[in-house]
Design brief:
The chain has a single domain, classed as 3-Layer(aba) Sandwich (Aminopeptidase), CATH 3.40.630. It has about 425 residues and is of the alpha+beta class. The radius of gyration is 20 Å and the shape is globular. It contains eleven helices and 23 strands. It has helices spanning about 35-40, 40-45, 45-60, 110-115, 170-190, 200-210, 240-250, 260-280, 285-300, 310-320, 350-360, and strands at about 90-95, 120-130, 135-140, 145-150, 155, 160, 165-170, 195-200, 215-220, 220-225, 230-235, 235-240, 300-305, 330, 335-340, 340-345, 365, 375, 385, 390-395, 415, 425, 430-435. About 55% of the residues are buried.
Length: about 425
Amino acid sequence: MTDLPRRHQRARGPEGVRHGRLPRRRGGVAAVKLLAAAVVIVFVSVGSVAAYAVWDVARSIKTGVHLQAAPGQSAIPQDIPNVSALPGGVNLLLAGTDSRSDLGGVYSSADEQDASSGAGNNDVTMLLHIAQDHKSMTVVSFPRDLMVAIPDCPDPKGGTVDGSSYAQFNTALSRGGLNCVVATVSKMTGLTIPFAAVINFNGVSAMSTAVGGVTVCLASPVTDDYTNPPLDLPAGENTIVGDVALSFLRSRHGVGDGSDLGRISNQQVFLSALARKVVGGGVLSNPVQLYGLAKAAVNNITPSETLTNPTTLVQIALALKDTGLDNMVFVQYPAVSDPDDPNRVVPQESAADALDQALVNDQPIKLTGSTGRAAEDPTATASPAPDAGGQPSPVATGTPAPGATPGTTGTPGSAVELPSTITGQTAAQQTCTKGND
């Protein structure tokens, strides 16, 4: 997909948002693993470190956003059940905003503020679904350029923001805040979403620093002069941290085919590597790193009211502690080119229905398609299958990473086989990013 200049992406809503040219600086990106990974410090640390961490993290959490139930759905509970002790799943939405407001530093310049201020757009949106039995996890990435129906949303300033039958998905945040993003994803998938948060630009940079960097594999060099700092990463293993990690996750021109869909698969390479480090790389047993990760999380998110209690964050983390890397699946919401606009995409209905049904029915999923436009599995041996754009790519089976269960990658229990047009990977697969040569 080709980015339109941001001045043409003005949101149709009451919240003032200004969008200028495609920024050459940093971009918004989110990692859903953030909340589960960051807050485990409160139950793995001991003594005064743990006590201080709980207090300091609790006082850092911002005032929560009250989420309203979508029409026809039950009210979203404010007293969340203990998911670590009681049977129950989790649906958590994380929206990455491109707004520069209140970030300070390099974002204080006129160019940065003109690029996006106010609520901003949800340029990265991910939905975390943890199964009722906690044996599987799915993270769904929604393309920012997806054209969908956005329902009527409560206006953060009072009243209601009128919906639209055909609008760009990433305008939901600027139309009606976090509630509007939740309502739009709920309408698309049929899920009730009681947990949500908005994360700003600084989140990923701070997170990658807190864990000491994330090592990603590059199948070919990745260069991108449109990021700040510019990317010039060689092929092979690269440990990226801070602003370089943010540039890597924001890069569109430097990965795959230069599209936003390629960027999603590149983000999944990073997320799976982050998951492997958190689960199998010693982060869970390092109170210092976990404390830093917890602080990075709460300092850079605006949570829903249901996430303002640190105990709830702990309960969500506990729900994932025994899931296993091979049962953590990252997928892109299936999309095809919009017949009315080649720079936009629309849901691929049959594949989207299959994914939505599996989520609503709380069924684990099995991928049969490729790893996406900007990712490849160097260990894949299966025959090629088409990706969402019709290009053949190897079906990703991969070699399980440390922490994975041999022989069960992507196949927990009675997993539902998704159509091959749905791209993604498990956290156990050690995939590599393909540069945009």
